[in-house]
Structures are given as C-alpha cells and as structure tokens.
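Structure ticket #2291
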Amino acid sequence: MPVKNIIPGQRVTKEKLQRARELRREMTPAEKILWQELRGNKLGVHFRRQRVIAGFIVDFYCHQAELVIEVDGCIHEEEMQRENDVLQDKTLSELGLRVVRVSNKDVLKNLKQVIKRIQELI
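Resolution: structure written out below.
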C-alpha cells in the first residue's frame, strides 16, 4: 500500500521512499554544502531534502516558498537526463512550484551567489 507524502493527496510507493532515503545518505559534495546553508531555517523558511513530488525525487523543497532547488552535475548534460529534467520542471510548474536549477560547479565556486539567488526567490 502506498504511503502518504507531504504533498496533499499524493501517494508514494515504498520503493520511491526508500530511494529518497538512499539519496539523502549519499548526497553529492555540492548537495552537502548547499544543505548546510538551507537546513535549520537558516534562510527563514524550512527546506526538506530528497523529497518525492509527483513521482520525482527533488533535491531540496520548501513548501512555504513553493520552491524546488535542483543541484545538477554532469549527468544532467546527457540528452536523456535533459529530457527528464524538462519533464520534471514542466510537471512541477503545473503544480504551482518554482524550480531553480544550479550546477554543482556554481555551488562549489559561487556559493554566496547561489544563496543570494535562493533568498530572492523566497
């Protein structure tokens, strides 16, 4: 039986929840760095990490700001992944969520600018 998630009415399979847990344990270095800046309401809102929304596992999600943050590495340059990213962005936008994508490189080299951009979106 599917398990309820934080999006009202959404059902999530146990397998998808397990995968999200695995991704929380296996965050990339860039995701870890950004999480340190987002966690604990440091920006004035609550973020969750590796959250299932509409069948997608998003890197960071803030319900209050209706904001999804995706940290993209080199795999997102591959055509198949780009197509999936477009579908994900479209689906999440249709739910009224804003999606911002930042590269691993930006998080590692320009963290202050990334945080400033997120603050502006909040």
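Closing remark: Confidence is low (pLDDT under 50) at residues 1-5.
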